Amino acid sequence: MTWQGWLQLALFAALTAAAVQPFGGFILRAADGSGRLVRLLSPLERGLYRVAGVAPGEEQTWIEYARALLALNVAGIVALYALQRLQGMLPLNAPQFTAVPPDLAINTAVSFVTNTSWQSYAGETTLSNLVQMAGITVQSFLSGATGIAAALALTRGFARHSTQAIGNFWVDVTRITCCVLLPICIVAALVLVAQGVPQTLAPFVTATTLEGGNQVIARGPVASQEVIAVMSGDGGGFFNANSAHPFENPTALTGMIEMWLIFLIGVALSGTFGRMVGDRRQGWVLFAAMAVLFLGGAAVIYRAETAPNPAVAASGVDQAPGAWQGGGNLEGKEVRFGAAQSSLFATVSTASSDGAVDSMHDSFLPLSGLVLLANMMLDEVIVGGPGSGLFGILLFVIVAVFAAGLMIGRTPEYLGKKIEGNEVKMTMLALLCVPALILGMAATAAVLPSAVASLNNAGPHGFSEVLYAYTSGAATNGSAFAGLNANTPFYNLTLAAAMFAGRFLVIVPVLCIAGLLAAKRVIPASSGTLPTHGLQFVGLLVGTILIVGGLTFFPALALGPVAEDFAMQAGATY
After folding, report:
1. pLDDT digits (tens, 9 = 90+) for 61-72
2. Mean pLDDT for all residues in the chain
3. Which residues make beta-bridge pairs with 206?
4. Which residue has the higher pLDDT, 315 or 482?
5. Which of 172, 549, 246, 570 is nearest to 380 (CA)?
6. How much is the pLDDT for 284?
7. Which of 18, 309, 390, 574 has CB 3.0 to 4.6 Å from 269, enough for a Cys bridge?
8. What share of the chain in percent tops pLDDT 70?
9. pLDDT tens profile 142-156
């Protein structure tokens, strides 16, 4: 470990905390229509509503809101699937790519519509520029806006009372896309272009190497896709190497910018929540709980990855940091980033449910792999994806206040709303569906010979690769250990099912909770009301998250990274 590495982590934490209130207010003004940009773009907004036949002044019940949300996303899956299957006949297809196979096409369509960005393909050798722009990039915008809309609907459930309405989905998605995501993306894309990220429709070029051979260099509209990919939670890369590729992430500065963009919307929504419920302290409590979990995980991974790899140390290799090397476990990492930024990027990626990578997670040490898995297994509460992080941690808030209410013998309350049986049932449905998908599908893949044949490793690490794949899919993250050949019909179809269920079997119960809460009356606080705006509640919330996650997943983690760590320390190999 070096002081430069710790300084980098501290700088990133400071920049992230500084974004909470300004961008939280920016999102709120866009959502309620009071922002200057909303007023400036109001003619465009009205035109879109007129073409789509939307009545923007009519708010929706949670059932109507959910129906609209599902309709948009199912249509997105169909459209993206069709683009992939027809790309051989469509323009902007140089070099000439053929149709994507059906199982891979449905996997990719579900992946990007569900905000997962799992990629069983190499982007630069599989998809045309048209599919990258009109398919992948468009769905990155819409999937990010969908998550934010769901979070706003749940927040309205806490903020409103005695009403059935939780907003209008079409209005929320339109304003978030046009007035939040698009403006930030335009500015950030120009910054990346200035740093050397390509943005062109020119064809691939062939270069002559020093050895006299020919190498095809892929290029395309990278900057525009990269920005929305990292900011929306759809971290899929234009290139197979993702943010380890110098065309996606050329410098340490672009790496810091991309990490900041990954966290931007997630942390800002905690500020939006505080403003909408009329108590900014509530938003800071949520942010503090996220920060505790993130910083703890980042510290563990940084310490593990900057320590010597026991397997390499046995060969007498010097792994200590010095003037000419960063030191630590550099397998699978870009030397230009080193162990420090790679560790931070991996933590940000898995804590945010984004899935972008600047190093190969399969090469991380077992303890680091355990933390990466745990970040995703906690149901998107450590910042999470845009919107999904906020409603994910609010689900755990409901569990925490319910448990506290049982302990003190009072009806649980949060922000003046009684937390009763229906809300708890919907909360548990949302929280338990992801673990059920992860554990059930991983167990199935671990015993099927055709699925096991896709593994490049045996023993605990091979099991970790399978567990990571379904964790990444069901938790809508999209990163991978990469030691698993997932481009087979079995994995493409089962991962597509995990991604679809992991996204919408959470969002629909969340919207139901929003409708239930919005219909309730506000109960004045009393001397027996549990305070939810201080450090005590931060501790209760963090403890609830860790206990629920630990009890659910520890047996599976013990079979994978824990067993691998013990074997590594004992000198065993696989």
Report:
1. 999 999 999 999
2. 90
3. 216
4. 482
5. 549
6. 96
7. 390
8. 97
9. 999 999 999 999 999
Is the CB of residue 474 less than 8 Å from the CB of residue 501? Answer: yes
Q: How far is CA 553 from CA 66, 428, 439, in A?
A: 30, 16, 8
pLDDT band with cut points at 50, 70 and 90 for residue 508: very high
Q: Which residues of 68-85 are buried (b: 16+ CB within 10 A; e: fewer)?
A: bbbebbeebbebbbebbb
pLDDT (0 to 100) of residue 323 = 66
Calpha distance 468→147 (Å, rounded): 23
What is the phi-psi region of residue 234: left when phi exceeds 0, alpha when psi lies from -120 to 50, beta otherwise? beta
DSSP character for 54? -
Q: Is the model's pLDDT at 313 over the cut of 70? A: no
Average pLDDT score over residue span 260-280? 95
- Alpha-carbon torsion (258, 178, 282, 504), positive or negative: negative
Rounded CA gap, 446 and 530, in Å?
45
CB–CB of 540/396 below 8 Å? no
Q: Is residue 277 part of a domain?
A: no
**Amino acid occupying residue 464:** S
Of 34, 231, 56, 47, the C-alpha closest to 148 is 231
**Whether pTM exceeds 0.85:** yes
Residue type, 79: A
CA distances from 232 to 75, 171, 194, 344, 410 (A): 19, 18, 21, 19, 40
Asked if the structure places residue 89 within a domain, the reply is yes
Greater model confidence, 132 or 524: 132
How many whole angstroms separate alpha carbon 248 and alpha carbon 170?
32
Does residue 177 form part of some domain?
A: yes
Looking at residue 332, its pLDDT comes to 84
Write the pLDDT tens digit of every residue in 334-376: 888 888 899 999 999 999 888 889 899 888 999 999 999 999 9
Whether 537 shows a pLDDT value over 80: the answer reads yes
Q: What total number of domains does the chain contain?
A: 1
Q: CB of 283 within 8 A of CB of 270?
A: yes
Reference 27, options 109, 149, 127; nearest CA is 149
Torsion of CA 362, 367, 370, 376, to 10 degrees: -80
Q: Which residues have a Cβ under 8 Å from the Cβ of 110 and sit 6 or more positions away?
A: 77, 116, 496, 499, 500
Q: Which helix (H) or strand (E) holds 206?
A: strand 205-208
> Which residues sit opposite 216 in a β-bridge?
206
d(Cα 264, Cα 219) in Å, to the nearest integer? 27
C-alpha span between 340 and 301 (Å, rounded): 9
Is residue 273 situated within a structural domain?
no
Give the whole-number percent of the chain exceeding pLDDT 90.
Answer: 63
Strand partners for 205: 217
Contacts of 373 (CB under 8 A, 6+ apart): 350, 464, 467, 468, 471, 553, 557, 560, 561
Residue found under tokens 């995990």? 498
Please give the Cα distance from 166 to 517 (Å, whole number): 10
Instruction: Take residue 334 and report the two structure tokens written for it.
Output: 């870009």
Q: What is the C-alpha to C-alpha distance for residues 444 and 475, in angstroms, rounded to an integer?
A: 18
